[in-house]
Amino acid sequence: MALKKSELYSSLWSSCDELRGGMDASQYKDYVLVLLFIKYVSDKYAGQPYAPITIPTGSSFKDMVALKGKPDIGDQINKKIIGPLVSANKLSDMPDFNDTNKLGSGKEQVDRLTNLISIFENPALDFSKNRAEGDDILGDAYEYLMRHFATESGKSKGQFYTPAEVSRIIAQILGIRQAETTSSTTAYDPTCGSGSLLLKVADEARTKITLYGQEKDSATSGLARMNMILHNNPEALIVQGNTLADPKFKDGETLKTFDYVVANPPFSDKRWSTGLDPLKDEHERFKPFGVPPAKQGDYAYLLHIVRSLKSTGKGACILPHGVLFRGNAEADIRRALVRKGYIKGIIGLPANLFYGTGIPACIIVIDKENAHNRKGIFMIDASAGFMKDGPKNRLRSQDIHKIVDVFTKQTEVPKYSRMVSLEEIEKNEFNLNLPRYIDSQQAEDLQDIEGHLHGGIPCADIDALKRYWDVCPHLRVALFRDMRPGYLELTVDKSAIKSTIYEHPEFAAFIAGMNVHFAQWRERFSAMLKQLKAENHPKEIIAELSEGLLAHYTGKPLINHYDVYQHLMDYWAETMQDDCYMISADGWKAQTYRIIEKDKKGKEKDKGWTCDLVPKELIVARYFSKEQEEIDRLTAELESVTASRTELEEEQGGEEGAFSELDKVNKASVSARLKEIKGDREAKDEAAVLNEWLKLANDEADLRKKVKDAEAALDAKAYSQYPRLSEDEIKSLVVDDKWLSALDAAVHGEMDRISQSLTQRVKELSERYETPLPQMTERVAELEAKVKGHLERMGFKI
To answer: Which residue ranges does the record assign to the DNA methylase adenine-specific domain (predicted)?
Structure first.
């Protein structure tokens, strides 16, 4: 069976996190990721001649497994596995597997390393077949672990990872996908961290390009080198060193220049000039622009990027917002960069995205090729588009797509983006702070004084709902009528607002039209999805599917096409991605398997069966609906009987009730009490209640057994149906009944949200102005008089 992508991620994380003990995540990650790396390269390259990674004899993962339980396991891993691998492939230093401070000593170290190796012995983690080629399940797992380790490491130790969503934006706005790339096309990251940003740029290129990266921290540069290999870029050149003080990539004595440069440097680095005399910089990175402040290194990195770009080069750098408006030396540098035309755009991001800091950041986009024609800078304020993800914020798929779309097409969107002329920037003394140019604040919901004084809904508030009236022009007339100039009143009761909207012919026609619109997309992509084969790449599938859906809803009224797109991307992450990976590995096979759970003592327990690709409920709905209906009927009857029994117990549970003489209300005690009062005429009413309870209890037990037997029979029928499924039936179950039905429900939910939004706003406005201030004052006076009268009758005089 194919390993579900989500299960690989979560099982690796939970297992590794469990073994971490008291060790800091930023340290423990090194051991986990090295083991993942060794397992992958061993499976993929061991014994292969001319492989990009050499696995010396005796240094594979199998050889590491042989060391489990040995008293000197840590020392042996260092000598037999790590050392030869590093030497044979010129890798960066790897962590010490015999470090007693981190891994403990004696039995503690032996157990910890043995258990850690065991995690990667899972037979499902067999990477001998390259599952990758654009769908690198292992590389993505590596990224998943990096994200979790960064989250666990806290603010000060999360710099080794740039959120994948931000990396994706940068890679796409560079325009590398539209460019003619070859193997000689170069991309460079001077502060590459674990290499995720650089890899995203490589993923966007249509051909293989050459990657260069430099990283100051030796452990992190080792992670980057491993990450390159895991993502099928073993030729990438990653070096360790301080980029500003000692840049490693040169052409002779001058800095090497690249086609694309990207970076997420440390924010406001106070030690950027360590080992460097900025005034005597031999590479002349600062001479044309000015020297950055001694305690603010942001522009030092940006100017290094500018100097490292070819004359036709393009780059992007993540920096704190301070670079846009801070004065003195930074203002001079900013002015020079703008005047040279190097800055193509600025994208403001939400706060709290990055693991090293909670402050908001921006992306500065550099374009040397078109600098001489620059007439303005394109600005985007995307600070409001995100979702909460634990302690951090996170960009959603729709946020990424919107930023890239708007930036690539240079589309001006109110309160979101605009092209700002160089003349306007100069008038603002080259201050690039986004709020100066884009008012992203949401319009305030103003209160109308006259409306509160004299009643009536202001026409301005109803006019603000223009997008609804454009689609349903007569709906406005159905809801409102003129009250006096500039003010309206409802034509229907407040309780009828929803039904008036839902049942209006224009709104009903709009909903029906949108249903047809989705059905058209569904029919088109149903056929495409049923053509999937084992060799198809899931990432290509979701790209075609999502872009098709986004285009299909672009320009449609009332509904936001990015919201529809997000529903698909959410469902992809939750369910469809795993399904597509299973199909890409095994084809259209509906394989059932037993669910075995272990208790604390290690004893196994069979918890039934399941099928990941075609869940049981799909089989039942299509083939055994009558049996399910009978179970539903029995369950409803059972619930009714249970409710009657519970109600009887509550009615007769008091001191005077029929159950007052019982310690417990159960069959045994009720039967015993009936025997006790048998023949007692005074207890006739009590006996009637007890007999009624007993009948209900017996009916309940009988129905419960019938439900259980029916469910067992249905379970057996469903289980036996799987081997009889044809491939076409499986395709129809998965594509039509599972995937597209879920998306259909999500899109219909968007339609409901549209109608609910209008209903709530109309109701809110009607309630806001339904009682004018004079009436409220009069009502208050009436209530005050009543209270005064009550108090006087009680003998209290005001």
So the answer is: 135-445
Which pairs count as long-range contacts for 134-139, CB under 8 Å and 24+ apart, including other chains? 134/537, 134/539, 134/540, 135/537, 135/538, 135/539, 135/540, 135/581, 135/584, 136/230, 136/231, 136/232, 137/3, 137/5, 137/8, 137/581, 138/36, 138/40, 138/230, 139/199, 139/227, 139/230, 139/231, 139/232
Residue 676: both structure tokens together: 């006790």
**Token couple for 439:** 């008012």
Alpha-carbon distance of 102 to 20, in angstroms, equals 10
Report DSSP state, residue 4. P
Structural domain tally of the chain? 2
Instruction: Please state, for a pLDDT cut of 90, what percent of the chain lies above it.
Output: 63
Asked, for residue 527, whether it belongs to a domain, the answer is: no
Q: Are 661 and 677 in contact (CB under 8 A)?
A: no
Provide the token pair at 311. 């004359």
Q: Residue-wise over 171-193: b if at least 16 C-beta within 10 A, else e?
A: bbbbbbeebebeeebbbbbbbbb
**pLDDT digit string (tens) for 532-579?**
988 788 888 999 999 999 999 999 999 999 999 999 999 998 999 989
By three-state DSSP, how is residue 135 classified?
Answer: coil
Coil, helix or strand for 188? strand
Q: Quick: pLDDT tens for 136-168.
A: 556 667 677 777 776 666 544 445 568 889 999
Helix axis angle for 538-553 and 505-529, nearest 10°, is 160
Task: State which residues form the domain around 105.
Answer: 1-148
**Do the domain assignments include residue 138?**
yes
- Whether residue 370 has pLDDT greater than 80: yes
Q: Is residue 481 part of a domain?
A: no
Can you tell me whether residue 591 is helix, strand or coil?
coil
| Residue ranges in 266-396 assigned as alpha helix (H) | 298-308, 329-340
Residue 501 in tokens: 């909207």
CB–CB of 301/262 below 8 Å?
A: no
pLDDT band at 135 (very low <50, low <70, confident <90, very high): very low
DSSP per position, 46-95:
TT-TT-SS---TT-SHHHHHTTTT-TTHHHHIIIIIIHHHHHHHTPPP--
Of residues 2 and 447, more confidently modeled: 447
Residue 1's domain is classified under what CATH number?
1.20.1260.30
Q: Which residues contact 682 (CB under 8 A, 6 or more apart)?
A: none
Would 523 be classed as within a structural domain? no
Where among 690, 705, 724 does a domain terminate?
724
Average per-residue pLDDT for the chain:
89
- Does the structure show a pLDDT above 90 at 218? no
Rounded Cα–Cα distance for residues 134 and 391 (Å): 31
Radius of gyration of the chain from Cα atoms?
34
Choosing from 148, 168, 190, the residue where a domain stops is 148
SS3 490: strand
Determine the Cα–Cα distance for residues 97 and 77; give it in Å rounded to an integer: 7
